[in-house]
Each structure stands twice: as structure tokens, then as C-alpha cells.
Amino acid sequence: MTTPVAAPTSPTAPAAPASTAKTNADALSQLSNNFQTFLALLTTQLKNQDPLSPLDSNQFTQQLVQMSGVEAQLTGNGLLQKVADNTANGVSTAVGLIGKDVKATSDTADLTGGKAAWTYNLASDATDLKLEVVDSTGRVVHAEAPSNLKAGDHNFTWDGKDLNGANLPDGTYTLRVTATDASGASIATTNYVQGLVTAVEQANGSTLITVNGSKVSWDKVVSITQPATATGA
Q: Which of 33, 60, 151, 168 is found 20 to 30 A from 109 (Cα to Cα)?
């Protein structure tokens, strides 16, 4: 009687915290390679087994279950490590921003209820300045030329209307600022969103905060202030 193939040696669980992610990935890769080898050998044995003395299906079924269990454990370890990394890399810190007034670098802002707001900074005085609002397809939906060309921060609020005066749907829009000096050279500009932080979330491994309805990576925050408390008469 042909003896079923033995299950490959199961990879051990990672021990060193500093290299847990890499160790876990290596173990999963090793398990995958072993599993493919195991299936190849099993298929060969099934094709060449003695019809009068067939293989014991219970043995290799148990081996498959064992390998699946090891894979699930390694995957679970990876998920736990990701949660730990996310917590260490921003969530716990970002939660403390809820209710705070923050200013964060961002070219995008959400149009909500006919209003989207940015703050743009000019590194130096300009002689020519153009603001353009761009939708998600890259189409310019609004453009204007402000008269204040001085260096520094400038607030800009868009009413959500396109070039023809039609109201556009709520969504995420991008502010594009083009500024030049007297010689025609480009002037560096930086865009910001500013307002109260109302939420914190994890998305694709990044910690995002919600500012005026717009989601911004928490590490883009450049200033934090305590909002003024209204006092009664």
C-alpha cells in the first residue's frame, strides 16, 4: 500500500516583535510553497495508486486541515500586528484632535451645502494670480483672479457653482493655485483646509481625520488650536 505524503513542516510563529511583519510574510510564503509541493506529490500518488489498495483519504485530509489551521494562525498574527502598528502610528494620537481646530495641508476639500473652503499661502508677493477649482475628472469647474496679491495666507470660499453659474453636486474638489512674480517666475504656493476635527478613522493603513467634511491624513496637520468657548451674557 502506498503511504500518503507527509505534510510539510509547519513554519513556527514569529518571535521577534521588531521583525514580526517580515517573519510572518516569510512564513506565509514558505507555507504556500510547501502547500503547492504537497498538492503536487499528492496528485502524483493519486494518479499512481494501487486500485486494489487505495490511499487512506482521512490521512491527507487531516494534513490539509492542519496546513489550513497554520495559515489562519499566521494571517491572524499579521492582522493583530497591523492593528498594533496602526495604534502606535497615529490613531491614539489623532483621537486627541477631535474637537480641536486644526490647519492641515491639503489641495482637496469637500463641497457640502454649496460651500467648500480652503486657505492658500503665497510665498512672496505676486503680480499674477489665478485660482481654479477642479473636479474629480480633472475638469476646471470654477476660475477667478483675486485682487489681493500679497504674500501670506488667504482664505478662499467657493459657492459650488460652475463657470456657467450652475450648482454642482456635493463631493471632493481640488484647488489649483497659479502665481507668478514680476519676472514671470512661479511663486511657491501651499493649500490648507482648516476647521474642527469631527472624526478619526483608519483607511488602507493610514490614519485620517475629518476637517469640515474633508478627510485628511493626520500627519498633514501643521497647527492645532483650542476653539474659542462661547460665553453667555
A: 151
